[in-house]
Amino acid sequence: MENVTIRMLAERLQLSTATISKALNNSHEISEETKQRVLALAAELNYVPNPYASSLRKKASNTIAVVIPEVADSFFAEAINGIESVAQEKGYHVLIYLTHESFQKEQAILRDFQSGRVDGVLISVTTETAAAQHGLEQLVKEIPIVFFDRVCEEITAAKITTDDATAAYKATTHLIAGGCRQPVMLSASRHLSISNKRTEGFRQALADHQLPFTAASIIYCSNDTIATHELLKKAIQKEHYDGIIATTEKLATAVYEAAAALHLQIPHDLQVIGFSNLSTAKFLNPSLTTITQPAFDMGKAAAALLFKALKSSSFALPEQQEVIPSTLLIRNSTLAAAD
Amino acid sequence: MENVTIRMLAERLQLSTATISKALNNSHEISEETKQRVLALAAELNYVPNPYASSLRKKASNTIAVVIPEVADSFFAEAINGIESVAQEKGYHVLIYLTHESFQKEQAILRDFQSGRVDGVLISVTTETAAAQHGLEQLVKEIPIVFFDRVCEEITAAKITTDDATAAYKATTHLIAGGCRQPVMLSASRHLSISNKRTEGFRQALADHQLPFTAASIIYCSNDTIATHELLKKAIQKEHYDGIIATTEKLATAVYEAAAALHLQIPHDLQVIGFSNLSTAKFLNPSLTTITQPAFDMGKAAAALLFKALKSSSFALPEQQEVIPSTLLIRNSTLAAAD
DNA sequence: CCGTGTTACTTAATCGGTTAAGTAAATAAA
DNA sequence: TTTATTTACTTAACCGATTAAGTAACACGG
Q1: Tell me, what's the pLDDT at A1?
Q2: A264 touches B at CB < 8 Å
Q3: In A235-248, which positions are buried (b, 16+ CB within 10 angstroms) versus exposed (e)?
Q4: Which SUPFAM superfamilies does this entry report, sorted A to Z (chains A, B) (predicted)?
């Protein structure tokens, strides 16, 4: 059986395709009676409109893109959840693209969006992304786009972030309160504003407690699990760190792995705080003190902002910013009590 | 600036749109020289073809849909990873739809696919889905579709599964070898073939070890976290289970939660095995013995199968089946040693 | 009774590509 | 030299919906 089209409905009912289209879109130009007849036949024949014909004509796809580094990170998984919940409610479709932290892939993906494939974009950039070289600047002007979590500092655009500097400051203070004198921060990128802000909060907390900030205070880790494991083991042995702030979920578990390999007891030999949304954090051995980001809400907020812009073109999207606070959840991988 | 179209290229080069189209598609009808001129101008003007125009005419969207219950489950997160890796390689786009275990949502989503929005579908059905009522039977005939993990037994269609019965049998045997005499299986559905197969493996293992299979041997849990928690606590207290097989990731952590609430020691009071892909399983307290499903590979296999069908229409997709084995990873939440 | 609106449609152009069918010129074969 | 074939294009239809513009029929106020 062929696909049912508007033309088929028109022929059956001896009406023009224009009438059918308008009837289906509940236009005031069409009589109640005709609308009923059209709707009835459409239901009977199981008519489903071709979205691409409609998109082509209307220049709107009812589709948004989500561009993220990976899904297997509970922050992004939860964020997708938030995004999808809003999109589904608004009748939008969600295309998903994984960059795997590759700036090249990210660029290729974004370039494609100039085709009009999507009405808007939600993006969390790769660790390699530095806004300068990027066509991002250009794209922001051409298509509604909302950055979330990993944003580009240099670009004027809509952004949903969490309070990274404050969170890092709190985490660091918490480590110090637990007796830590040699804290280190594991960072995933030198370029990302999110990383720099966390570094800033970390540095500030060290300064406020008269602890030195040196070259050894930050370790930049790659996305390569094995390399990171080796790097961590060597660094911990050499520098005798007594506290670690892991700024990504993967890095947090990497620390547990390294500690196990070096026979170090968490938290007595080494305190650990992770930026993580793992629902299993409290069941880890020992349970992991976390900076928990409001992933679901950030996803929702980003999507909501985007849809607001899509609805009214007069809405000045690029000026919107929102910061949703993270929470320090104190568990057994650190020593200080809650205050 | 307006979007660049094929017509604009045509006017600039004093050629017909047909020539431009063919040149861009590297048709043999076009001279090398003209192709170069077209490509050069396209690059210069940053031409990106409108996918919807092309989809409309070619009746192919270069897009697939992934329909799953949720993303915040590491099985599905990894599966998406596998799917996306294949899709990206083949130049396909991936639409994602979350059913949140709602059969109604699932139906609405699938119905939309009759519009031609996607060239193929990868689906893992909801816990509520029973094939019979479903329009699934119909859809399978109309559009290439591959079921993965949670399949519909009654439907003849392409399926990628893991060895659920065998895995459950192994898990049960392992519990029994550790001294368990009152094992219980936590199931997420009465309808799903995946659940029934696991039940079957469980039942068989009990029978082979002269243990009774009663109404209390299986607990059906809903998707409601709080209700599940209460249900679990009560059941464990009442029936004095000494071993639990949690058939979903969420249920595994729910068991840890319930055990903590009841002050039960895992594994001494209660052994636990989870069907789970959590990368943190080995860091849990105690580390969790898991049946680990090959999530990434199942995603890849499902996508590969789908693309094979999309490439050649003569390929008999509905007859394809593949079973990829799961692995029992023995850790500290159970007592028996590896054999 | 005439002009003005309103109602309920139809006609035809349009979105931006793709492709079957046609054509003119050049080349090869007979 | 004539016919057949190949090359490199063009023309125009088409995919399926949307929408600006047009129209016929009827109602209504003055």
Answers
A1: 45
A2: no
A3: bbeeeebbbbbbbb
A4: lambda repressor-like DNA-binding domains (SSF47413), Periplasmic binding protein-like I (SSF53822)
The total number of residues shown for chain A amounts to: 339
Q: Which residues of A touch B287 (CB under 8 A)?
A: 285
**Which residue's CA lies closest to nucleotide C19 at its C1' atom?**
B18
Question: Angle A193-208/A164-177 helices, nearest 10 degrees?
Answer: 40
CATH 3.40.630: does it fit domain B6-49? Answer: no
R_g of chain B computed on alpha carbons: 25
Of the candidates B159, B244, B161, B167, the one whose C-alpha atom is nearest the C-alpha of residue B198 is: B167
CA B40 to chain centre: 43
Where do the structural domains in chain A lie, given as residue ranges? 6-49, 58-162+295-325, 164-293
Nucleotide nearest to B116 (CA to C1'): D16
- Level-2 CATH architecture, domain B164-292: 3-Layer(aba) Sandwich (3.40)
* Per-residue tokens: A128: 């390699």
pLDDT digits (tens, 9 = 90+) for A76-128: 999 999 999 999 999 999 999 999 999 999 999 999 999 999 999 999 999 88
Taking each continuous run of H as one helix and of E as one strand, the counts in chain A are 12, 12
| Closest B-chain CA to A70 | B81
Quick check: A94 contacting B, CB < 8 Å? yes
Taken in order B142, B148, B152, B155, the sign of the CA dihedral is: positive
Q: Establish whether domains B58-162+295-325 and B164-292 are of one fold.
A: yes
Fold (CATH) for A58-162+295-325: Rossmann fold (3.40.50)
Q: What is the pLDDT along chain A (339 residues), one digit of tens a residue?
A: 468 999 999 999 999 999 999 999 999 999 999 999 999 999 999 999 999 999 999 999 999 999 999 999 999 999 999 999 999 999 999 999 999 999 999 999 999 999 999 999 999 999 887 666 667 788 888 899 999 999 988 889 999 999 999 999 999 999 999 999 999 999 999 989 999 999 999 999 999 999 999 999 999 999 899 999 999 999 999 999 999 999 999 999 999 999 999 999 999 999 999 999 999 999 999 999 999 999 999 999 999 999 999 998 778 888 899 999 999 999 999 998 876
The residue type of B162 is T
Interatomic distance B22 CA / C30 C1' (Å): 34
Tokens describing residue B177: 């070898």
Is any atom of strand C within 7 angstroms of residue B31's beta carbon? no
Contacts from A234-241 at CB under 8 Å and sequence distance 24+?
A: A235/A184, A236/A262, A236/A264, A236/A270, A237/A262, A239/A182, A239/A184, A240/A182, A241/A182, A241/A183, A241/A184, A241/A270
B/e letters for A115-134, b = 16+ CB within 10 Å, e = fewer, are bbbbbbbbbbbbbbbbbeeb
C-alpha–C-alpha distance, residues B114 and B11, integer Å: 38
Contacts 24+ apart (CB under 8 A), B238-242: B239/B182, B239/B184, B240/B182, B241/B182, B241/B183, B241/B184, B241/B270, B242/B179, B242/B180, B242/B181, B242/B182, B242/B183, B242/B269, B242/B270, B242/B271
